[in-house]
# Entry
Amino acid sequence: QVQLQESGPGLVRPSQTLSLTCTVSGGSITTCGYYWSWIRQSPGKGLEWMGAKGSSGSPYYRPSLKSRASFSRDTSKNQFTLQLRFVTPDDPAVYYCARLSRLPYTNVVARLPDDYWGQGTQVTVSS
# Structure
């Protein structure tokens, strides 16, 4: 079974960079047909797909976040990473990493049977 686990600091200062890492077990991030994604949910809002790394390493972005978000991976560690620069008070949320079989872009994110999600990690922005 595929398992994903988010890790990283839970508190980030305004204008700083948020870095989160997703560690994958039970499957390889280079397996074809999947997109290793970052999704977040702010209080009172739905799930927002942020972007992903494809199995070949190609990056995919939500257009509104392309200027601030970067997606990288380390295949030797079976990990992929989110960096979100210049965080603002709009960025606090629960951040999830997930294996999806599609690229949601701006569409509603649904949790489908073939998807695997991490537990999520709470990130706050405070000075």
